[in-house]
Amino acid sequence: MTRLPSGTVIDARRVALLHEGWQLARAAPDACASPDELAGAPLEWRDAVVPGTVAAALGADPDRPADYDADDWWYRLRFAAPARPAGARFRLRFDGLATLAQGWLNGEPIVASRNMFVARQADVTRLLRDENELVIRFASLERACARRRPRPRWRTALVANQDLRWFRTTLLGRIPGWTPAVAPVGPWGPVALECVERLELAALRVEASAKGADGRLRIEARVAMLEGHRLEEARMQVDGRPHPLRVDVGDIARVAGEVALPGVALWWPHTHGAPSLHECRLELRVDGEWTSLDVGPVGFRTLDLDTSDGVVRFTVNGEPVFCRGACWTPLDIARLRANPAELRAALEAVRDAGANMLRVSGTMVYESADFYRLCDELGIVVWQDFMFANMDYPLGDAEFRAEATAEARHQLERLQRHACIAAYCGGSETAQQAAMLGQPPERWSNDFFDDVLPRLCEELHPGVPYFPSTPWGGALPFHVATGISHYYGVGAYRRPLADAKVARVKFTPECLAFAQVPDAETTSLVLGGPTPPPHHPKWKAGVPRDSGAGWDFEDVRDHYLKDLFGVDPVLLRSHDLARYYALSRVVPGELMRRVFAEWRSPQNECGGGLVWFHRDFVPGAGWGIVDATGRPKAAYWYLKRAWAPRSLHITDEGLDGLSIHVVNESAQALEASVEVEMLAASGDAPEAARQAVQVPARGAVTLAADAMLGYFSDGTWAYRFGPPRHEVVVARLRDADGAVLAEDFHFPAGLGFVKPHGAELRAAARWEGDGRVAVTLSCDRFLQAVSVVCEGFQPDDNHFHLAPRTARRIVFRARERDAAPFKGHFEALNLATPVTVRLARDAGLRAA
Q: CB under 8 Å to 594, separation ≥6 — which residues?
């Protein structure tokens, strides 16, 4: 019998989480219809994880997929009731039941749900006993799908079972080709017993906005009073200062008002300013005593979408923002939720990479309240999809439509006070799927996506842009030069790198998918030992593919490996597997770096791009720029340089030579200098030039390399007058004090032109305290794609090029409090002999 904790007070409710002591059991579909029938059934009960799913409780193994949708799953919990004050009301709340659920308390039915995305609650005041049993049945989704229904107007290859379209559940775990078969079944959201004593906050809307430097807070609340209690007065505390509100007394009291805040600190994406938040509390005087309700931190900002002259560009507080980041994936595909510490670590890594936008895509799940609170705090804007993707949803069915509408309302009500929300979207590829399958334009969308959802968004979260689907716009919704597009020209469609310049992408909320090889520590997890060859079944299981395609995304990466390095990937992996993987790690990073250099140049019309996707579900060569363990892959480091708020980018302008673009997103003008060095293939002294630049606040400037040098250099090797004169072109941005702010590199003859050599890599290391080690690297020759492996330590940079006669300082932080002695293994694609650096806590540097 579980004893309930005393609980936390939230919105005047005392909340006790029911997360300990659960058990679950599998049953054949419809074998038991109620808790009374469980006693005589031969069920095997085992401990369960709540919040969580069956897969999380059973320890899902991606190598041995299980069909969790095939059976019924029963959960049960026995708990002792808390103290019951006189006149109090008790309610059970379920914040996520996946997916066909029925619940009983002490044998009485209390809840039924067909939507995993909507919270359910039940008043259980009269049902509570001293000792209680809560039972939930999750019915077989496979059995429910087998019922005869109208056929869809088109079929999608994304999922095997087309009848999933009738159920409000996630497609995660049900998409062959790129998610493991761990369909979520169970109480994936918190389960809580709530005690309401004097009042209940029935609804709360807080609209924060700004005009210039002034903030405005609009509050509307409905307060239900328990019998015998009276609401007398209300006020809103903002940063400790009270502001009175109007109270209209009734069976359900209404509280409303507006608060003006002159000169308030505005909320910005972290790349453009400080994401300032203000503490707000709603205070209610009941029976002569004040009750304080935490509204949460609130951010004031203006948000607009500029679509003039065909562009698609977000502006925040009047400033255009180039949005970049990734499509977010749950950190744990079995549980679908992460604890606040795990979320914070992951989102801080997103911020540290220079990303300022994440997309919660329609193939995923709505994220937790902790996720949106952290995005508010860290200055990461969120493109929020409703959970629809690819399918012909039966929105003409009254019951389904009502369920979908309730879901949208529920999600909007919980998200509307978050400054991070920058866009709502009907879903992913719903219009594209219909158009690609030859459906006429009138079937690409419907009134739910075109009318119902935008009206709900405007009612509940006004001022936030809405899109019916992605991609959207143009003669066909997936044409990339108009509206919002999914850009895979460089990527799945194997277009040359120059396609990023000519495609004229305006905004891409999904782009640039590659099978990204993780670093060696994670690669070894695939087989639990030696590095697997790419044809091994366990390795291939982690490589994403589109259903029905005769290729996978490793084939895509191999195509570009040959294109960039001029080597045959099949031959290379046959005789030098280690080098094959070393080159394969670099390929996506180099491509993404170059594409974002094009998109961030001042001449380009692109307003942003979100990489598909943030993190892998399982160890292996998935799409993620972060692997399944949370370690950054090579592409993460390349993108960190491409996404930096103060950054420098080289673009190849063909016969017009090289352009060097300096971007400054900060609120202060940048006084700096740009250096360019043309490193000769012969090893002779470089040709070099330097020019002072002044970059306005939140502005950019472009320099021509030939103009800086003062003569024809053929830095792009476009004229082909013999072999290339230069092996590498280096551009460098220095601040007024000479510190390097950014670097970029161009390879006129391709990445394979740099040959391995016996240059000497020099390394010096020292402990800096607090579990940190600083390593300074230098070399007399150019080093290509320097990488480091250091077990137990996380570097602040990796997979970088090192220019000759320069120093690069890397800081390593121990992942655990009691770190082992430092041992960093440094290598480069063109370094014949790797270098290992060792450092003990109580000794000096030892280099091998």
A: 497, 500
